[in-house]
């Protein structure tokens, strides 16, 4: 006989305790425990010595995470990496290190503590906690901004291969990545299509990180960097305009400004490609429904249904041509000038 599912009360308790797991992962990442275990298993006393942490507390943290398959106690008080723990290493190209650190940082964590007030009043919890909108806060906090940009790059890396495999970008001589951060998606598009040129458009701090990341690669001569505000204008000369997880940061009025800025530069045969979740109806599971709460809390944005996407495009001079689902869960929402 298979294992019976937990009773509803127990299942609810497991969900309620999820915050403990998030903070445990944050602590393990911030202390770089996975990095110290990269060469192989270590006794907890040696791991604590190398990491500069308290012996007993380190063992208790690892013991708890091992219960979830993150690290493994191969012998009493001796721990090793597991496949999941490998992704907490800071040196892997498929790392989630920065994402794990960001989730538990006070500036992000404290905002989630205001969710009830956010729901009660409609005021964005992040602004209630910090008296600033998210992106103004990041402009004033360079360390938080660097972490945020790196975490976003890790999120992009989860989906970019599926996006590039699901859409033929070769039809567009020049692709503009609007709000493209460290340029992860644009990099994969250009690597897959040797004739395509790219423009990366974002805030100056994000572009600095992109330049540093791409320095010395064969793409240096194929990417132009431009900074500015996508609420005001986006670079001219593009044949396709990419917006990956940009529109979900904003309410409809703000997202409309971004779309109209892109529409103003879009040639007749050009395409706007919004890469976003398309929320399914009813109780159907979608990571986008959880991400929708993150948007509610941190920036007042939202995820959208198919009908919502259609109306948002139409209201801003665009016609939704098709929606291409990708294996990553996000969709490519293709629009043309109306």
From TrEMBL:
Residues 112-317 form the O-methyltransferase C-terminal domain. SUPFAM superfamilies: S-adenosyl-L-methionine-dependent methyltransferases, Winged helix' DNA-binding domain. The keyword S-adenosyl-L-methionine applies. GO terms for molecular function: O-methyltransferase activity; protein dimerization activity. Keywords: Methyltransferase, S-adenosyl-L-methionine, Transferase. It comes from the Bacteria. GO terms for biological process: methylation. This is Dimerisation domain-containing protein. It comes from Stigmatella erecta.
